[in-house]
Amino acid sequence: MRETAVDSIRKKNIERIAERLGSKKAAAEALSGEHGYIAPSIISNIISGRRGLGERMARKMEKNMGLPAGSLDQEEFAANIPEMKKTDPKRQALHGIIDILPESAIEWVTFQAKIALTSPAFKASGRSKKQF
Predict the structure, then answer these.
(1) Mean pLDDT of all residues in the chain?
(2) How far is 114 from 118, CA to CA, in rounded Å?
């Protein structure tokens, strides 16, 4: 398979996403979403050149990340990749749970958290709200 200019740009952009997030696995998680799962081996194969990043897969990744179609095809994208944060697996799991809870349950949990964070026991612990 002969690499085209667009293939090269897409590969570079995937490499930069993996660098920004710290690993190929983290990149795969960021590029996965409701439009499809992206396995870490796919990211590894794209970066190593064993696999190209085709049109359909590129568009799927962009949709999963909430990017405009064609973003991964742009050279400028690699230089201006949006700030991405590594997601703590516990925090990611919590977000997954919150996504499926009914609104009333979220309101109840929020209320309970406010009570806990203003309790004398919490204040005496010396911990800050930012740690949560």
Answers:
(1) 80
(2) 6
Q: pTM for the complete prediction? A: 0.60
Q: Which DSSP string corresponds to 85-129?
A: -PPPHHHHHHHHHHHHS-HHHHHHHHHHHHHHHTSHHHHHHT--G
Q: 74-98: b or e for each residue (b if 16 or more CB lie within 10 Å)?
A: eeebbeeeeeeeeeeeeeeeeeeee
User: At how many degrees (to 10) do helices 24-31 and 55-65 cross?
Assistant: 80
In whole angstroms, what is the distance from residue 123 CA to residue 116 CA?
9
pLDDT digits (tens, 9 = 90+) for 66-90: 888 999 999 887 666 655 555 556 6
